[in-house]
Amino acid sequence: MSPQSHKNNLTPKGIESNGYSAGKTMTKETRNHSSPSMPWFGMDIGGTLCKLVYFEPKDITRDEADTEVETLKNIRRYLTKNSAYGKTGHRDTHLQMDDVCIRGRRGTLHFIRFPTSEMGNFLALAKSKGMANLVTTVCATGGGAFKFEDNFKKEVNMNLAKFDELDSLIRGMLYIETTNPHECYYWSNPTDDSKCQKVPYDFSEPYPFLLVNIGSGVSILAVYGPENYKRISGTSLGGGTFLGLCCLLTGCNTFEEAIELATGGDNTRVDKLVKDIYGGDYGPFGLPGDLVASSFGQMNSKDRRNTVTKEDLARATLVTITNNIGSIARMCAVNEKIERVVFVGNFLRVNPISMKLLAYAMDYWSKGTLKALFLEHEVKLSLSL
User: Fold this and answer.
1) Average pLDDT for residues 27-39, to the nearest whole number?
2) Catalytic: 336?
3) Where is this region: Disordered (predicted)?
4) Considering 165, 311, 336, 378, which one is annotated as catalytic?
5) Distance CA 288, CA 309 (A)
């Protein structure tokens, strides 16, 4: 897989020229020409999950309120007064960002998610709420922006303004980090539950850094500056792999169920450890006895298979996928001579197990030279809102 270089317009001036400002308020003249279309949405349609970002303006003038159509008021009320939509749609209220500035308007960013497999129901909901009467174009990124383009046009008469997935990833990250000073953090003492905690990290001077985006699959980017990055590697073994294998092995149906099972499991009952082979540490190469030597290595024994639980299998699957991602990320960081590795993507949502594993692995195997960093938000917002 050959590296792919890309240069884009992501300097602070470039960000503001695309409608984003680090807390600055535009002039009245600029604001009046900011965007004629409300509501403002951005969509990241992934292989497993669809993420929807909705900007709710809070600085609506009296004239705007008087002329606002009832359909728009209803949509705003529906989106902001609920945290669940049907059986599978959810608004992550803990991620809500207040008092942000977009295109000269101040308001709140809401983050909504639903399984991509429910796209048909989402379009039906959008149609029933009259959204198609207000919005002719929705900005979107991710593979689903191509896959579902005809569906949007046919079902709700909407066009998709498609934005490159990796462009949107970088742009969204820069915008979020600039807007939220507590966005970036790391885990201290990740292997000690009694001492482990999230610690804020100053990411104001970030370059260079490695960006590891863990969705259904994994893409790894080396970011050298606001206008210069390249995709250097990736793997098909990502969040989609974890969920698919867990569904097969445990009978679960959702990512949340799989993580809940993994939280109560013990992977050492499934995996073969170094001490299972050597009776302890492997001293000559500095391999501790508790290190996984062979993922699922104990499952070739019928007796062992009869004793493991669904929780154990889910935990072993999570550890296997996470260790593989961490190993690839570490090798990429070493090759690029980059010390900061930022892990993002929906795989890490409600998944502190993987974050702590990655934090420990980066620190241990690099002897403290690599730093694993994380973000509070999913970042493929796109500068298209």
Assistant:
1) 41
2) no
3) 1-38
4) 165
5) 26
